[in-house]
Amino acid sequence: MPYVPAPVIEKLGALVKKMFTSGWEPTLLSEEVLASGVWFYDNKIPFNAKLLRQKYDYTSFDLPKIEVTVHPYNLDYIDYSISDEGSVYFWQFEGQGRKSKSPTFSTYFAARDHINSYGTKYDISW
After folding, report:
1. pLDDT tens-digit map of 62-111
2. CB-based contacts of 86, cutoff 8 Å, min separation 6
3. What is the pTM (predicted TM-score) of this model?
4. Distance CA 39, CA 52 (A)
């Protein structure tokens, strides 16, 4: 294991402690469209559908620290489905003057397969 001077360790420790304060809120780092196309509500009404991955500045490993540090009012902003890499996956639907989204998932595969629970008619480009 490489030698790390004490002042460096101290600074790193301060950064970790500052990361989760009482008023901390998650920050969206990136959003990526993984799949898109048309999904048909009731197998008839078309909606634009996108499978999205959002990357945040916290992971599932951080959840225990967040729960004891962050003010309860800010816990509403925490997505407990977050992966150990800091990503959440979900479907977003838009059409007929409405916009909605699915629950979030911690893996691409769980989110991908979830579209089948909404119906069997869709044309999605993966």
Report:
1. 999 999 999 998 899 999 999 999 999 999 999 999 999 999 999 999 99
2. 29, 55, 56, 57, 58, 59
3. 0.81
4. 15
Give the C-alpha distances (Å, rounded to integers) separating 30 from 87, 95, 125.
Answer: 9, 24, 21
Question: Which residue type occupies 33?
Answer: V
Sheet of 122-125, strands arranged across? 98-101, 87-95, 45-56, 28-41, 122-125
Give the model confidence (pLDDT) of 24-64 as tens digits. Answer: 999 999 999 999 999 998 889 999 999 999 999 999 999 99
Place of tokens 């909606």: 47
Token pair of 31, please? Answer: 């959003």
Cβ partners under 8 Å of residue 57, min gap 6: 26, 27, 29, 86
> What six digits make up the tokens of 39?
């999904």
Beta bridge pairs of residue 22: none
